[in-house]
Q: What sequence folds into this?
């Protein structure tokens, strides 16, 4: 097996690894978008609930209803904080995956350059060999006096 063919196997392996990182990066970005949408929905719901409560507050509220409202708002705040923390983790995961992909991409490109150089070297060597064979045939033909040379 030629060197360029052996290197092609490595290029393919690195390319597959790069694709896996890229797929994982895409999934993580999709996950981040979903979390951002969930967080927006939670904040919107909290804001709507707060506005409704303000309307009710103007009419007067019992202490129990006020305590229930505060407890619910605390739960909403915790849920929002949890989603924000989750987004921070996903952002770090995306940064790590992007870095892994970039390293894999550079490695793949470098391996492709090495493989291409090996292939070009093999082509030049084959051309040189072919030229030497043609020169040798031409020399034999001249030595025979030009007979049976085609």
A:
């Amino acid at each position: 097996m030629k060197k360029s063919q052996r290197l092609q196997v490595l290029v393919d392996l690195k390319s597959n690894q790069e694709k896996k990182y890229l797929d994982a990066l895409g999934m993580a970005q999709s996950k981040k978008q979903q979390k951002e949408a969930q967080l927006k929905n939670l904040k919107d719901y909290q804001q709507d609930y707060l506005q409704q409560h303000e309307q009710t507050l103007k009419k007067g509220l019992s202490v129990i209803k006020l305590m229930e409202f505060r407890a619910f708002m605390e739960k909403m705040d915790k849920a929002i904080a949890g989603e924000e923390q989750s987004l921070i983790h996903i952002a770090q995961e995306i940064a790590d995956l992007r870095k892994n992909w970039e390293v894999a991409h550079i490695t793949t490109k470098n391996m492709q350059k090495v493989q291409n150089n090996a292939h070009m070297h093999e082509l030049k060597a084959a051309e040189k060999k072919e030229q030497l064979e043609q020169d040798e045939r031409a020399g034999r033909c001249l030595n025979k006096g030009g007979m049976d040379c085609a």
